[in-house]
Structures are given as structure tokens and as C-alpha cells.
Design goal:
single chain, alpha/beta, Rossmann fold, two-stranded antiparallel ribbon, 10 strands
Amino acid sequence: MATIDVQNEIDLDEPTCIEGLPGVGLVGKIAADHIVDTFDMTYYAAIRCSGLPPVAIYHNEESELKPPVRLYADAERDLLVLHSDIPIAAESREAFAECVIEWGASNDVTPVFLSGLPQEQGQEQATDASESGLGLGGGGDGGGSGGGGGERSPELFGVATGDGNAHLDRAGIVPPKQSGAMSGPTGALLHEALDRDLTSVGLVVEAHPQFPDPEASKVLLDHGISPITEIDIDTAALVDQAEEIQMARQRLAKQMQQAKTEESSQATPLRGFQ
């Protein structure tokens, strides 16, 4: 049985929920962690699902244990963050998605789902993207090229269910130029939202396929989450502390590499099936 157990009553009015499950480049998790830390968000609810492992999480300089998957809230910004310290196993993702989406629908929540598109880095990345048609513009200054030396910023694009396209249009985020599939637990959440014809947004950013990618998470925050939520999010620390973030996330990154492909949220281009 899957339930969402509210721990602290917080007054929210049609909130936006940022999903931060582990996936390619850990882009969603890094972005979600950054939002929680930046706004000092309150632990709001525990997500309990029969398929989730029975583990308890503790953090630095805190004695209070918490469940591995939980929601954080910020009443001032009418914001929720779905946070996970573990990968969501394939066998539990359907029940997990049903629980989260049903609860969100009954509480007037607009979810924003985050995923990484595996890409090679540097000049090879730019070449591969150009040859495969993955010129995924982020709208305005959201995608675009970076500085010299063949480097460029990871590019961002958006997908939607229900009336989610209105949010993407307002933020200037364009759809992908190539067909693809959203997989893993984030894909299951989007599938459930699609089945129910609920409004949701999916943001996909180019990311390193094997290692934590704080630069890609910064693009998500600056050019996706911030304009959609209309909340100013300071992301300077994501660049300044990139090395620290890499080290802190290394263990989870190894878990994701060892996990089955379907356990990792990612966007996958569909080649040869069109």
C-alpha cells in the first residue's frame, strides 16, 4: 500500500511540486537538494510505498531519522519538492507513481518533472547533438552555446501533459526536435499524469551519462524551474561548489550505474523506429 503521511501541517494553495528523483547526471536530485537548502524548506510528508526499501536516513549533525522518500514544503513560495535519497526500483514505480499523482491531483498540485538526456561532454557532445538533430534549444537564453574552446551549456527542452504547454510557452522552453521516451520513475509519473489528463511539465536537460552534473542542474534551475515557478533561485553555489557536489553524490551515482536501466529516470531518443 502506498500513502503520503503528512508530518507537518503547512498551508499551501495550488502549489508547484519539483520532482527530484535520482537519474542521469543526478540532475533532478541536485536541483531538488539545492532548492530545499536554499529556501530552508520544511520536512512536510513521508512517502510510504510497499516497494520502497525499509531504510532510515540520517544527515550530518542531525539525530532525527527520516524516510528515504519525502516531500518538503515552503508556504511562502507555495512550493513542494519531492526528494529521494534512494533509486526507485522498477517493481515499485507503478504504485509509487499512482500514489504521488493521485495525491497531487487531490491537492491541486502542478508537478514539474526533471530528467537528464545522456550526452557526451565537450566538443564530442556538440558534434553528436548536431548530427543527431538534438539541437534542443531552451528558449531565450536557456539553451544556447557557451564560451569558447568548443564548450557549450547543456541544452534544455520541455514536454507536457494536460495544460502544461502553457507553462512551457510562458517560460520560452521549446519541445525536443527528435522523438524520444521518458523512462524510469519519472517516466512512470509522467505516464500516470498523461493517463489522468492532468497538467504537468517535464524538463529534460543534456547531462553527463555517468557522473553527477551540477552544470546541467544549474540550467534546469535557471532556465526551467525559475521561469516556470516565477521564483528567483540563486544558483551561483552550484558552480562554485561543483567539486564538492561531485564528491557528495559519487556513492549514489555508483548505485545508479549498477541499477537496472529502468530504475534510472532519463530521456532516450528513439532512433530507427520512425
